[in-house]
Specification:
The protein has 277 residues and is of the alpha+beta class. It has a domain of 175 residues: Thymidylate synthase/dCMP hydroxymethylase domain (Thymidylate Synthase, Chain A), CATH 3.30.572.10. 27% of the residues lie in helices and 24% in strands. The chain is built from six helices and ten strands; from the N terminus they run αββααββαβββαβαββ. Helix 2 packs across helix 5. The longest helix has 23 residues. The radius of gyration is 18 Å and the shape is globular. It binds 5,10-methenyl-6,7,8-trihydrofolic acid (MHF) and ligand LAUPNLSC. The ligand O=c1ccn([C@H]2C[C@H](O)[C@@H](COP(=O)(O)O)O2)c(=O)[nH]1 binds next to strand 7 and helix 5.
Length: 277
């Protein structure tokens, strides 16, 4: 059984059995028909994935790794905030008439800051530190910039990634303030596991643990029956993940740099997953 399935199933069971509904409150997100999208949530979920053991990928529902990696590279490599630079439609509902999602995600990672080593953005600072100062405990990127929140279509959810070296191993903590379990838990985990593999490869480390800290892990009301069906399924084993070993420059990765072997997964009709906006 894929370890990511085990974690997903347990987290969803915990949310459904111990979670708290927000039905008595006003909430921001809406369904397509305009009704409020309520959730049941659990506060403070921490999941650990050891990338040396296996790649964290769901099999209880088929996932599209290349599409997820395309969005990851849109943020971390292209540092774009425009959906015209994205090959999927996952951000369409939050874009303005020019395709912009405002000063969120990729925009924040593209802003240059002044450091003792020179002016660079947060991604290049991470790459510089891992190459020149791997003992540093200050290697992180953060997109939750209060100064610019009023100009973001959606406030960053997966908002910070902290890198930390132990021996030859590169570990990371993904901080996420809000997680839509059905739409994006598997999606975000495989994205940031891939990022850890990529950054480790180009800085000469072995990818180790990804620790995923989620403040508000929730299941939307209309997703509950789908989640109940998914967690009753019998998972397959995790696929084998490989990253093109010839890539030594972070900016040379493409979605085709990732490969999966032996990925077996249950299908799920996308119409069953409406996304609350
Ligand atoms: N309510 C909500 N949940 C989210 O997960 C979410 C937001 N809003 N707003 C911004 C982004 C958009 N996200 C999304 C939206 C849709 C898919 C999605 O439909 N994924 C499909 C594959 C899509 C494709 O490959 O083109 C899937 O099956 O995983 C994934 C992430 C995650 N984020
Ligand atoms: O990468 C992402 C982006 C977004 N989400 C989810 C989490 C929430 O359900 C919504 C955002 O709504 P807020 O009211 O701003 O929390 O999007 C995700 O899970 N992963």
């Amino acid at each position: 059984m894929s370890y990511a399935d085990q974690v997903f199933i347990q987290t969803c069971k915990d949310i459904l059995s111990k979670g708290v509904w927000d039905t008595d409150r006003e909430v921001r997100p809406r369904w397509e028909d305009g009704s409020p999208a309520h959730t049941i949530k659990l506060f403070g979920v921490v999941n650990r994935y050891d990338l040396r053991e296996e790649f964290p990928m769901l099999t209880v529902r088929k996932q599209y790794l290349k599409s997820a990696v395309d969005e990851l590279l849109w943020i971390w490599q292209k540092k774009s905030n425009n959906i015209h630079d994205l090959h999927s439609h996952v951000w369409d509902s939050w874009a303005d008439e020019n395709g912009s999602i405002g000063k969120a995600y990729g925009y924040q990672l593209g802003v240059k800051h002044h450091y003792p080593q020179g002016d660079m953005d947060q991604v290049d600072k991470i790459l510089w530190d891992l190459k020149h100062d791997p003992a540093s405990r200050r290697i992180l990127a953060i997109m939750y910039n209060h100064h610019d929140l009023s100009e973001m279509a959606l406030y960053p959810c997966a908002y910070s990634m902290t890198f930390n070296v132990s021996g030859n191993t590169l570990n990371a903590i993904l901080n996420q303030r809000s997680q839509d379990m059905l739409t994006a838990n598997g999606w975000n985990v495989m994205q940031y596991a891939t990022l850890l593999h990529m950054i480790a490869q180009v800085t000469g480390f072995q990818a180790g643990e990804l620790v995923h800290v989620i403040a508000d892990a929730h299941i939307y009301d209309r997703h509950v029956p789908v989640v109940e069906e998914l967690i009753a399924r019998k998972p397959f084993d995790a696929p084998k993940f490989t990253l093109d070993p010839s890539v030594t420059d972070f900016y040379a990765f493409t979605p085709d740099s990732v490969k999966l072997e032996g990925y077996q997964a249950h299908s799920l009709d996308p119409k069953l997953i409406p996304v609350a906006v």
